[in-house]
Design brief:
about 15% strand; acetylesterase activity; Rossmann fold; disordered N terminus; 9-stranded mixed β-sheet; Monoacylglycerol lipase ABHD2-like
Length: about 425
């Protein structure tokens, strides 16, 4: 009997170790980049790129737990919510986007910088992880503008559409409005999950304000909605269950705004939308008709930054976790190929972190700030300092060139007066 009891204890210990992945220890992130002056500068000025990332000991090595706790509770710093000023912008199709601008209590050493943030799927400025990020960076001198995806707040829709996975129009309109309100600010573009896909697409479009952008940051995105739509239908890694949960969230948004979206419109199969158990079913019953797409493949391809991100010209940081339950490892060839093909990009891949979790420290209760948010702050500070130094060099060079030109003109005038006959 004692033998069986001992065997049972060993089996339970093995299951416990496997479930919590305790045998997979912490490690520094794996970095993929092409050697360049910029990347060498980042390695020297962003400590978290080379230090070991240690998740919470008891549960932090399980990507599912990281993802679920992030979704339900957010970082503990999110309790320090900030109050910003809400703005609204009317779009050409009649839609009204809203965004919130958070000021800072102290100026950044590198000058006036506004971080423009595109949240993840179904998120807005009130999402807990967004509030935690805003709280952290605004304490360090950054202004922050956060987009509310269409339909994610209680504000009524003014046109018959909600957000999509890859539409850049709303984010672009927010950036335009931010620059209209403050023409001298420099921009940093940050996106989380679906929002990261949108900002990469936006930066690839070569918008006029891109020249004001210091850098672009992508965290926890899948890059390719065509492949992503297929893997989300698989039960491997319980991705089908996550797909179901996201579909329920999207149906809640559609239901909340059903009076505007569906009233007097017979083009949609409402019963198919209500019975849908996956994002793909909702897209087939609603999104294709709402957006005028011919097929799911064409819609997902249009939404994917994979096919355009090679046009991004600004320094770019891409961050993913190897244990993200939504994004399998074979989809990470996109950021790898991108980072290895240019001098101003870096792909950071952690062993742990889940989907946007990246909790760190502690046995059970993690640190108030996630590893991801601290990494982003260090990267943004480094890039802002570099941009300031470059602007000083440019100003100094322009001044020297101006002085040189003035001296040359003076010399020419002097030489032309020499030997002039006097009557």
């Amino acid at each position: 009997m004692e033998v069986f009891f001992g065997a049972a204890v060993l089996v339970l210990c093995y299951v416990f170790l496997r479930l919590l992945n305790l045998s997979n220890g912490p490690a520094p992130p794996t970095l993929y980049y092409r050697p360049s002056d910029l990347n060498e500068f980042l390695l020297q000025t962003v400590p978290l790129l080379t230090l070991r990332y240690t998740p919470p000991i008891l549960w932090g090595r399980n990507g599912h737990l990281q993802s679920i706790i992030h979704s339900l509770f957010g970082p503990s710093r999110s309790k320090e919510s900030r109050t910003g000023e809400c703005f609204s912008v009317q779009l050409e199709d009649g839609s009204t986007l809203t965004y919130t601008l958070y000021d800072t209590s102290k100026p950044h050493p590198a000058g006036d910088i506004t971080i423009v943030v595109c949240p993840g799927f179904g998120s807005s400025n009130r999402s807990k992880y967004i509030q935690a990020f805003v709280s952290l960076v605004s304490d360090h001198g950054y202004k922050v503008a956060v987009l509310d995806h269409l339909g994610t707040t209680d504000n009524p829709l003014t046109a018959r559409r909600i957000f999509t996975y890859g539409e850049t129009g709303e984010f672009g309109a927010m950036v335009d409005d931010v620059m209209r309100e403050n023409t001298t600010t420099r921009l940093i573009v940050v996106g989380f999950s679906m929002g990261a896909n949108i900002v990469c697409k936006y930066m690839a479009e070569g918008r006029p304000h891109n020249r004001r952008v210091i850098c672009c940051v992508s965290a926890g995105q899948g890059y390719d909605a065509v492949r992503g739509s297929n893997v989300l239908m698989e039960w491997t890694g319980f991705r089908r269950a996550y797909n179901f949960a996201m579909a329920q969230g999207l149906k809640t948004i559609l239901q909340r705004h059903s009076y505007v979206l569906f009233r007097g419109n017979s083009d949609f199969n409402l019963s198919a939308i209500q019975s849908a158990t996956s994002l793909q079913e909702i897209d087939l019953a609603y999104t294709l008709q709402a957006g005028g797409y011919s097929s799911l493949h064409s819609y997902y391809r249009h939404c994917s930054c994979k096919f355009t991100m090679h046009k991004i010209t600004v320094p770019t940081l891409l961050v993913n976790a190897l244990d993200d339950p939504l994004i399998p490892e074979d989809m990470l060839d996109v950021p790898y190929n991108y980072a290895m093909s240019r001098d101003n990009a870096m792909f950071v891949l952690t062993r742990h972190g889940g989907h946007l979790g990246f909790y760190s420290g502690g046995l059970i209760i993690p640190d108030s700030e996630t590893w991801l948010h601290r990494l982003l702050l260090q990267y943004l500070d480094a890039m802002s300092t570099l941009a300031l130094d470059q602007s000083k060099v440019k100003a100094s060079t322009d001044s020297l060139l101006s002085s040189s030109s003035a001296f040359e003109n003076l010399s020419l005038c002097a030489s032309s007066s020499v030997g002039t006959p006097v009557d």
